[in-house]
Design brief:
- The protein is built from six helices and no strands.
- The N and C termini lie far apart (31 Å).
- It is globular and about 30 Å long.
- Helix 3 packs parallel to helix 5 and helix 5 packs antiparallel against helix 6.
- Helices cover 52% and strands 0% of the residues.
- By secondary structure, the protein is an all-alpha fold.
């Protein structure tokens, strides 16, 4: 989808426009069960990750623990957005996703 591609490529203005559209599914997954959030974590798009998580306050909440279903290059099946960010050595994204996950568990 256009949203998935915008997240992958870090096109934050486009991501924001699409996030403002209630028809856009934040959790739309590809054939590997990768969500836009997972794709943004893979490509180290920290601003995109933040925008997706901020939009979740009024939209369907992204599942940071969603797991991929197939191997994708070096990323193994069963990986979450957190796992992907860790493997890509993007510690700031890891910290953001882990904090978001903890906050979701508390609510």
């Amino acid at each position: 989808s256009g949203f998935y591609i915008a997240c992958r490529e870090g096109r934050n203005e486009t991501v924001q426009i699409l996030l403002d559209d209630p028809r856009v599914d934040l959790m739309l997954s590809n054939e590997y069960n990768w969500s836009p959030l997972m794709r943004a974590a893979y490509w180290r798009e920290i601003e995109t990750v933040k925008r997706i998580l901020c939009a979740s306050g009024w939209r369907r909440i992204p599942d940071v623990m969603q797991k991929s279903t197939k191997d994708h290059g070096v990323i193994k099946a069963g990986s979450t957005a957190i796992d992907i960010a860790k493997q890509k050595n993007k510690n700031e994204i890891v910290a953001i996703l882990e904090e978001y996950s903890r906050n979701q568990e508390e609510t």
